[in-house]
Amino acid sequence: MGFTRAELAAAADRVIPDVIAPGLRVLFCGINPGLYSAATGHHFARPGNRFWPALHGAGFTPRLLAPAEQDELPGYGLGITNIVPRASARADELSPAELTAGGAALTAKVAEFRPAWLAVLGIGAYRAAFARPGATVGPQPDRLGGTGIWILPNPSGLNASYQLPRLTAEFTRLRTEAPPTPGA
């Protein structure tokens, strides 16, 4: 599905509802929705985004799901949310205050839904939202209540440092190394 520039511009500031349920194994957390995703109403919908292929390639799902099938994720113990809910053309359009407020809102969401793991997709956004400048990809020493935190690379096609094989390897590491319950 293609969109005109005007249609994409009209998607700015839209919010995509979370795909979430109590007690998920992993709640994946994007930085914020892009305009293409906001226009479709589906997370990680832009062609070239590698979230869905990495999720499947890592063995989280038995088949490659399309963004329009995002509501199937809770059946696999998975969900999706964002640090900042509003859509923008680029993540660098978000202010530090928005990221900090998003971190506080995410903390409350995790307390309510209690996933075993929060997997934040984007190290820079995690560092800004949670004031953790030294955070690196992988499991974090911090917890949100009983929820473990794992940082994954941003799956955007703009993240040239992580091509699909390397990104899938990081997703696989989460799936295989993170027990269903942190500390288990």
Automatic annotation (TrEMBL):
Q: What is its EC number?
A: 3.2.2.-
Q: Which residues form the Uracil-DNA glycosylase-like domain?
A: 17-175
Pfam annotation, one family: UDG
The molecular function GO annotations come to: pyrimidine-specific mismatch base pair DNA N-glycosylase activity; uracil DNA N-glycosylase activity
Q: Which parts of the chain are coiled coil?
A: none
What is the top-level taxon of the source organism? Answer: Bacteria
InterPro entries, alphabetically? MUG/TDG, Uracil-DNA_glycosylase-like, Uracil-DNA_glycosylase-like_sf
Record keywords, A-Z = DNA damage, DNA repair, Glycosidase, Hydrolase
The record's section on CDD domains has: UDG-F2_TDG_MUG
Query: Is this entry keyworded 4Fe-4S?
Result: no
Q: List, alphabetically, the PANTHER family matched.
A: G/T AND G/U MISMATCH-SPECIFIC DNA GLYCOSYLASE, G_T MISMATCH-SPECIFIC THYMINE DNA GLYCOSYLASE
Q: What is this protein's name?
A: TDG/mug DNA glycosylase family protein
